[in-house]
Each structure stands twice: as structure tokens, then as C-alpha cells.
Amino acid sequence: MTSEEIFDQLVPIITLYLPDDVSPDEIQLKSDLTGELNINSAHLVDIVLDVEDTFSIVFANEDMEQLHTVQDAITIIQKKITTK
Amino acid sequence: MQNKPRVVVTGLGVISPNGIGISNFTKSLFTGVSGVQFYQTLKDLHFSCQVGGVPFISEEKKLEYFTPLQLRNFNSNGILYGVLAGMEAIQNAGIVPPEKEEDPLWDLGIVFGVATSGVDKFRESIYQLDEGNVRRLGSTAVAQTMASGVSAYLSGMIGAGNSVTTNSAACATGTEAILLGYERIVAGKAKQMLCGSTGEDGPYIWGGFDAMKVTTYKHNDTPREASRPMSETASGFVPGSGAGALLLESLESAEARGATIYAEVLGGAVNSGGQRGEGSMTAPNSKAVIACIKAALQDANITGKEIDYINGHLTATTKDALEVENWCKALDRSGTDFPYINSLKGMVGHCLAASGSIEAVSTILQMQHDFVFPNVNCNDIHPEITNLIAASRIPRVKIDTKIQIAAKASFGFGDVNACVIFKKN
After folding, report:
1. What is the extent of the structural domain holding B82?
2. Which of A21, A38, A45 to probe by mutation at the B interface, max B CB count within 10 Å?
3. Can you give the residue ranges of the Carrier domain (chain A) (predicted)?
4. What residues of B are in contact with residue A43 (Cβ under 8 Å)?
């Protein structure tokens, strides 16, 4: 799966967790999920669960620590898919 | 206590099995509309009592106050009812929540009571956890199952900056919440308090009561006739659920902002029978009940003669006659001299932790609209009750009359009591 394909599937997942004043257009590869998109840090675990369901993968605690930006998510997902 | 600050009610909200919102609920009170229905789920689970009072909340109604994100994996109907009732009271009072970047409302607090919170969510979590999937619980399992969940959800929506808390006193919870808020305003520690209580529903809440055989098994085919407070054929209570909310405010604050005043809280009292004498975990100590009502009168600085109307606890168990006897002794009134008395439970069942607040809302609506709602399913008044008070004091049809002063009491497991006195504005 290409980065672009993963990104397209990530946007609707992330959108659900955006605060009212952040537009989905602001979701970019380099966007920091909590720092820039202002997603409540408690919701990161929910995003990960949604990502796991969408891509049929499982995040380890160490993966969670690496997750800051949208690009981080794509990198982790790609690694998980190829090693599956 | 001469200079005790006066406290008034400036907002009301309700989610009742027979009415969602104040307007629908008021209409149901006029004619005695029942909210009790048969539930197949209870039959399938072999419940003795297969009827209950459950408010129906549409998806549109949920989205009035909750975001789609908040509703994701949301499975706590007590928080749902409490938030809807609490938000109605806030809007009804004309309070505008601050924007996210603004300061909270430092003088507005919340005391919203529960008996349990998020039992359905907790059950869901237990199943996931026992299968080794603790990581799948998501981020809201705590917020939905903590006792203060309802206060916390409400606080986020209204920006309350004063004390935000939750009380729990079994079936006296709702009435106690009103008094806790009242006392905080009287103490000068808050200007506005959102007071209320919420009660969840479903088999996991009601099962324990079914096992105790305190609910009725005789009306599974006739649900609207099941809840029969003060009736000779009362055979146990009908479980119910929902939430009631009152915005209490200092008179000074209410007048300063030109708020509509529905009633004044003259005072009240809470106590416990200590499970001594005839009192136990499940039965009231009458001495304490009488003392609580008398203390409420004293706190309100009125006499028993001044009470025009009693909104009873009256659950439709064998204890109804004893409750009436206790009122007679506390007020020193009987026969035709007794105030009007009714029980909302004939229409909606016993909403447990929510009962006190929903019934307090019904009390204030009767004062506001000058009527006493009918005692539903009470055409055969128990003779032990007519030995104490005249049948004319137990209206079976709506009566149009002015209520100047009303007493609302609730009694709960653990032998706890609460009584609040309202005055018509």
C-alpha cells in the first residue's frame, strides 16, 4: 500500500477527533497530532484502535511512543503491513 | 438565621419515562400519562418484574448536546439522561456557557447525584478485559464509569468553575443533591448550583431489586397499571430511570440578572436512622423520618400547618401507609386537615437515584401551574391510609389549586432521609 493510499484512509479517522476549530484540510503529513492538530492526547489511543481496525494490525507500546505526526503513523502502518 | 441568604430556582430540566423535557413532562403530569412499559429483554432474562419506566431519547436529541465523537463507544445511559436534563436547566435559566478560551464560571457549581454510573459500559469493559483485550477499552471507559462522570460531562459543556461533584444516597440522592447545592449557596460559597440526579436503567441495574422481590410481578401484561402507590393492591415498585435538574441561585444573583424565578427553596434537612430501632439497610427508622421532616420545617422557618402539598416518596410497596403515618406525625395533621399528597411513581415507576430530582421538578411545575397531578392507579386507596387521612387529600384526577408551600421528601437504602421545602414564587 502506498503512502498516499494510507494517508487517504487516515484522514477520515483523524478528522473525527479534530477539535471544532481545526479543519480537516489542516491534516498534512508533517502535522503533529496533538501539538498542531490539537487532538486531545487521551484520544491518541482511540485513533490507534481505529487504525488497527482499518489496517488489521496491532500497535505495540513502543509504536505508540513513536507516534507524533501523520507521517509517523504512515511509517508504522507500512512497517506493520509489510511484515505481516 | 435571620440573615440567611434566600435561594431560588431559576432553571428546570427533566428526562422522565413519561416526558422528555419540561414541556412534554408538564403535559403528561396534567393528565397522568404513564411511562411504564413491558420489556421483552427482562422477560428473556427471567425477571419477575418485566415492566419498567425508560425515557426514549432519539439520536437527534443526543446530538443537541453531545458531539459525534463523544457518542462514539458511549454506553452510559445515566450520563446521557443527566446531561440532557442538566443542559435543559442551564438553558432554561438563561445561562450562557463561556467559550473554550474564556474563564470558567467561577460562581457556578454542580452537584449531580448517582447511585451507579456506566454499568453497561463497565460490563462491556469487563468482557473485553477478561478476553485479554484491556488495551481495547479506549479512552472513555473511566469517564463513563466514574461516579462523577455525569458532573464531569456537564461541567465540560457549561464551564462550571465552582465545586463540581457528585453525591450518592440511594433513593434519597436527588433530594439530597438539591439540599447540598442549597447549603453551598447559603454558605456564600457559590451563587448558582446545578443540582440534580440521574438514574440508569436496564437489567444490570434492576436485577438486584428483582432478586430482593421488592418489584411487582403482577402486572407484566398490564404495565400502565403496575405502579400503584397508596393503593390497596400495590404489590411492589416498578423500576424506572431518567434525570431531573434544578438550577438553584441566590435571590440576589437571580434578581440582578432578571432571571425567571420558579420557586424559592425555603430550607430542608437530611438525616439517617442509623439502622437502629425498626430501621435497617432497607427499612426506614420512622423516628428519623419524622425528625427529618420536622427539621426541614424548622430550617424553612414554617410550621406543619403551612404545608399545602406533599410530594411523597411513596413507592408502591407495603411501606406507603407507614410513610403517610410519619407525615401525619411530623406535621401533626390528619383526616381532612392533611395536605394534598401524591406520588409521581404511579406514572413513571421508581426512578431510584433520579426519583428525588424528577419528583422535585414535578413539585415545582405544580406550584408554577397551580395544580395537583392525579395519583395514577390509586382508585382503591389502602384502608390503612384512609384511616389516617381523608381520601379527598389523595387526588385521583387533576385538581386546580394554588400551592403556596410544598414538601418533597425522599428516603433511601441505608436508612437515609432527605426533605426539602419549596415556596411558590
Report:
1. 8-263
2. A45
3. 1-81
4. 69, 139
